[in-house]
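Quick question, first post here. What does this chain look like in 3D?
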Amino acid sequence: MKKPIVITISLLLAAALCAAGTVVYLTFLRPADNPPADACATGATRPRVVAAGASMTQGSLGADWVASLRAAFPAYEFVNAGSNGNTTADLLQRVDTDIVACRPAAVTLLIGTNDVRDGVPLEEYRANLRAIVDRVRSGTGARVALMSLPPLGEDLNAPINRTLTRYNAAIKDIAARTGADHLALHERMAGILRHGARTPYGFGFPLAFSVAAQHYLLGRTWDDIARAGGRELLVDHVHLTDRGGALVTELAGGWLSGITEP
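> Answer (accepted):
Ran it through. Tokens below.
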């Protein structure tokens, strides 16, 4: 093989590896904007809102609804306590450092998608979520809102969504028992997804990497990427499109403004 060809191939491979590394970092490795470790190390100058959860809250894969709230409510400091891949067990382990230590005025909890995906037993999920809420309420004077979990895939009749229904029932029950507010995110999304044919659940790392590459390397919106795959609210069957993120922003923003739904 001639030397110029070798050099060209080597440069192309290096560029491909660099692009792949960029996507992996931006999607899976970089910290959330204003994470607890940075935000909560000093005293607050504005009331703090801690948004706690997993990747849907961290917002590096799919819409960043916490950033949208930050722009809409400048009177608050928004702390993004989302962490990719977290279950309720993971969030329970960091509830003191990432929520209580921030001395928040308000806390939103959107957690459980990974519990459902990982097959965490419902009673274990319920116990973990109850312990998180109890610790936040005992350790702070914060208002607390529990969000119901979005569907997994947009086919509401898929087996995984029938399973998820039981977890959402637990969320609503815990909110009622603890005096927390319940934000009906799943119900709002289901009202949209009931109309028309919908794609079944099919999440996997190749798809997640593909949609992330399209967004970060090609500049496509989450909505455009999802639409090309026949989806509307979930860009990769799990994470939120721009429209899906807007629903979360609307619900959480209404709650912060003193408006809650049953």
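Residues 1-30 form one domain.
Strands lie at 48-53, 77-82, 106-110, 143-147, 181-183.
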